[in-house]
Write a structure and sequence with these properties.
The complex is a heterodimer.
Chain A (H helix, E strand, L loop, with lengths): L9 H35 L5 H16 L2 H14 L6 H26 L3 H9 L4 H31 L13 H12 L2 H34 L4
Helix pairs in contact in A: 1-4, 1-6, 1-7, 1-8, 2-4, 3-4, 4-6, 5-6, 6-8, 7-8
Chain B lengths: L1 E10 L2 E11 L4 E6 L5 H8 L7 E6 L2 E2 L7 H5 L2 E4 L11 H11 L5 H14 L15 H13 L5 E5 L7 H16 L3 E5 L3 H7 L2 E6 L2 E7 H6 L4 H10 L1
Helix pairs in contact in B: 3-4, 3-5, 4-5, 5-6
Classes of the chains: A mainly alpha, B alpha/beta.
């Protein structure tokens, strides 16, 4: 009954809600993988090895230059040809992770470079090793500097997850489920406004979470009276 | 004892240290004076291997600092260093700034490291600023924080690199007072400074640097009151 109806039904709402959940899941998982990979790529470029700097730089440039939608198709086909056919959903997550890792790497590098050399020298001067300095001094200071940029990347990633639709990935994420409903009830305006509202709520949650840390760190720096 | 033997150091084609020979005894306070760019600060960084050298040797308690296989991290625990620009860790409160290295490097428990930090902060007169972030402290307080941070590693030597140069004049006194305290306690210090009266008062010996070499060295009062070399006379004449 509901599948033939031309009005917006409770079922449709549930489909969109599920789509929003998938979008959120795609963002969290690929954001996590992408941040881990991007962290090492960005760190690797700061180790002082020219070879690593350029090699990893090439990785970043290639990924940033090729449109994401092309990467989805290429990666999916490549894996199939290479004898490791993946489900469109898994293939999509991996592509998104690789894609965002290139941008995360640049943010990580900027964060590391934002820490003055002399701050590190002070840490090393106390007898701290390179890794102790990196994890207890450089990383916390750099993170504070680039958290807003990283949050921006994650919000962009959330919207980019909709491109996974080119692979016909199931279950459908938010935009794909909206399109399915639009095809049936022919009221794109209403549905797209609804989809927009879902995206907004999810982005808002992420932005607020990140903002909480920013404010906490800012309070550290305000004068105690 | 620190023995510096024929040390040469270049940045690219610019030779900053052109063969430095110097011996610093335990308990001694040595001040390095001279014009900017004469190599004084670079020498400090070469003593604790924050900068590599091109020739010569630095021996700290008979350990060759720059030799292959020397554990420089372990060595630096003995050599506290304080910089002109304080370089406090901006993300940590005063107490955590001081406790970080004892905790991570010496492996002290969190509680013990914080007790140690509290002790050293009180020692430099910051006992009431334990939970302030560096941004909430004045320049003089940040510099005393940096001194406490170095002292918390219980070093045998302190290397002080123009520790009052970045301070407003009215804050210089409080930092110099802290250094007097250390010298009274018998800590070995090598201090790069432009505070000639301070050097005369506190130092055992003073070395005058000129163009990458030690131009003149001698007992503090003697060298400052009656320098022998024309260059030294000229420098002191300008600065005093």
């Amino acid at each position: 009954m509901s599948t033939l109806s031309t009005t917006f039904t409770w079922q449709d709402f549930l489909l969109m809600l599920q789509g929003a959940g998938i979008t959120f899941f795609l963002t969290i998982v690929s954001g996590l993988f992408g941040t881990i990979v991007g962290f090492f790529v960005g760190w690797g470029r700061c180790l002082g090895s020219k070879l690593l700097l350029y090699l990893l730089g090439a990785y970043i440039e290639v990924i940033r230059a090729v449109p994401l939608i092309v990467q989805f198709v290429l990666f999916n086909s490549f894996m199939a040809i290479a004898g490791f056919p993946l489900s469109p959903f898994i293939s999509g997550i991996l592509t998104l992770s690789i894609y965002i890792s290139a941008y995360v790497a640049e943010v990580v590098k900027a964060g590391i470079e934002s820490v003055p050399r002399r701050t590190s020298m002070a840490a090393r001067g106390l007898g701290m090793t390179y890794l102790q300095d990196f994890f207890h001094v450089v990383l916390p200071i750099g993170t504070r500097a680039v958290l807003p940029s990283w949050t921006g990347l994650m919000l962009g990633l959330m919207k980019d997850t909709s491109l996974i639709a080119v692979l016909g990935a199931t279950p459908p994420e938010l935009l794909r489920s909206s399109q399915i409903i639009i095809t049936r009830i022919h009221d794109p305006l209403l549905i797209l406004i609804g989809a927009g509202a879902f995206y907004f709520v999810m982005c808002f949650v992420i932005a607020r979470l990140s903002g909480r840390y920013e404010r906490r760190w800012q309070r550290e720096q305000e004068a105690l009276q | 004892m620190i023995i510096i033997d024929g040390v040469r150091k270049s940045f690219g084609t610019l030779e900053v240290l052109k063969g430095i020979d110097l011996t610093v005894e335990k308990g001694e306070v040595l001040c390095l004076i001279g014009a900017s760019g004469s190599g004084k600060s670079t020498l400090l960084l070469c003593i604790n291997a924050l900068e590599p050298i091109q020739a010569g040797r630095v021996l700290v308690d008979d350990i060759d600092v720059h030799a292959r296989g020397t554990n420089q991290n372990a060595l630096r625990q003995k050599l506290g260093i304080v910089f002109q620009q304080y370089n406090a860790f901006p993300h940590l409160t005063a107490i955590d700034n001081v406790a970080l290295a004892p905790r991570r490097v010496l492996g002290k428990s969190k509680k013990l490291a914080r007790e140690l930090a509290e002790h050293h902060l009180a020692h430099v007169g910051l006992g009431d600023k334990l939970h302030h972030y560096p941004s909430q402290l004045s320049g003089g307080q940040q510099q005393r924080l940096a001194i406490a941070r170095a002292l918390a590693m219980e070093p045998d030597y302190m290397l002080l690199d123009e520790v009052t140069s970045a301070l407003d004049p009215e804050l210089v006194g409080e930092v110099l007072d802290t250094l007097r305290l250390l010298s009274d306690e018998g800590i070995t210090m090598i201090a790069v400074t432009h505070e000639i009266p301070f050097a005369r008062e506190v130092a055992d010996r003073v070395a005058f640097f000129h163009q990458g070499v030690i131009h003149e060295i001698g007992p503090a009062k003697e060298l400052i009151n009656s320098p022998r070399m024309p260059r030294t006379q000229e420098f002191l004449g300008k600065i005093l």
